[in-house]
Design goal:
It is built from no helices and eleven strands. With 174 residues, it is mainly β.
Length: 174
């Protein structure tokens, strides 16, 4: 029995949270890490993919500046038709009290071609049965196959809470 899967749209869904608090809210004063878990459906098992996660400050109404955007790339090989990958985003949240950040994701398929593995002299490397060993080599083609960019999606959003700083005043008495 063989099953052919045709005409299925690749889908991704994401959930972002702070690594330090394991929550969507965090009192960050300095560098913190967001873990963006990307669930995927209908990838080709064994094929190579690239996730590009972009962290954007939701409070800006114009195009984000370089200070407001952090982009992280994560390559992986799909171990199954459906699965999940974590992308870690490091960002300096100093003076970002009461800001919401959203993570946008793009998923690209890294196209490869099968090429015989060769030794130092250029001869094909053979397996125990005398067949050439094949390796996958990227062609440079990386078509976009799915994206998740919803500025209002709560699952893609994290919140930096206000940091309360205590002020200590010392009095000297005679």
């Amino acid at each position: 029995l063989s099953v052919t899967i045709e005409n299925h749209q690749i889908k991704i869904h994401t959930t972002a949270k702070f690594e330090e608090s394991d929550d969507k809210n965090y009192v960050a004063d300095g560098v913190a890490h967001i873990i963006d878990t990307v669930d995927y459906e209908w990838l080709y098992e064994g094929d190579q993919y690239k996730l590009v996660a972009t962290l954007i400050d939701k409070g800006t109404e114009d195009e984000p500046t370089e200070e407001e955007v952090t982009t992280v790339e994560h390559e992986f090989i799909a171990s199954d038709l459906n699965g999940a990958e974590d992308v870690s985003i490091e960002f300096d949240f100093t003076d970002m009290d009461n800001h919401d950040f959203v993570v946008f994701e793009e998923l690209s398929h890294i196209v490869t071609e099968d090429v015989p593995k060769t030794d130092e002299e250029g001869n094909p490397v053979l397996d125990e049965e005398g067949n050439p060993i094949i390796k996958k080599v990227p062609t440079g083609d990386e078509p976009l196959v799915a994206e998740h960019k919803d500025i209002d999606d709560d699952d893609q959003t994290v919140h930096v809470e206000q940091l309360y700083r205590a002020v200590m005043v010392m009095y000297k008495t005679n």
